[in-house]
Each structure stands twice: as structure tokens, then as C-alpha cells.
Fold this sequence. Notes:
By secondary structure, this protein is of the alpha/beta class.
Amino acid sequence: MAIDYGGKRTGIAVTDPLQIIATGLTTIASEDLIPFLKKYTKEENVELYIVGLPKNWDESDTHGTALARKAIEKIKKEFPNIPVKDVDERYTSKMAKDAMLQMGMKKKDRRDKKIVDEIAATIILQEYMQSIG
């Protein structure tokens, strides 16, 4: 499961059991992340949490880096048996917007930040799966 954590919203993506395809699952209010994950893990098997860690192009922290790190610590505390890995999420929001444009989505829909966050989480997961082969 990939998590694109933000100050207001969090995009979530999952993969199929064979870990071939990453799919956007939903976008939730960030304050609802832990309750959402508790409910989800009761119904579905989660092997690993991949959490996007925002960084600037020069590797320095962004305004969202500390928020993501706090979310990672909460996840680790609530789900000690599920590993958590942070990954570079630079440019995933831009990539999500570019993908929406390529899909022919209307301008109004491309402005919907919930969709952007869900697609960004999907990109994070897809890139992670490609990196591990």
C-alpha cells in the first residue's frame, strides 16, 4: 500500500495480490488515516506501507517532510507488524497532473486535488514496484 500523505488529504494506492499493477484506492482526510488503515487491514492483507517523503530537488526538506515523518511514526506505532518504507516522492504530483492531461481529463477534474493525490500515490507505488523488479 502506498500513502501520499499531505497536510489536508492523503492519497492511497494498492496493488493486486501478484503485485503487478498499482491502483488508486481513495483519498481521505489526513486526520482519518489511522482509523482508515485499521479498518482496511482488518479486511485486506497489507504486507508493506510505502510512504512518500517530500523533498526538494536539492534533497532538503519541504514544508511537508515533517508531516510525513510524523505520519510514518504513527503508522509504525499502530501497526508494528507491518514494515514501513519511506520513498522519494519528488515530482509525483506533477506527474499525476501530467497523467490526467494525457488521459484527456477535463480541466475541472484535473483541478480536483483528491484525484491528484490518489494518482500520486499510485505513481509512488508503481515506481516502488518497478524499483524492486
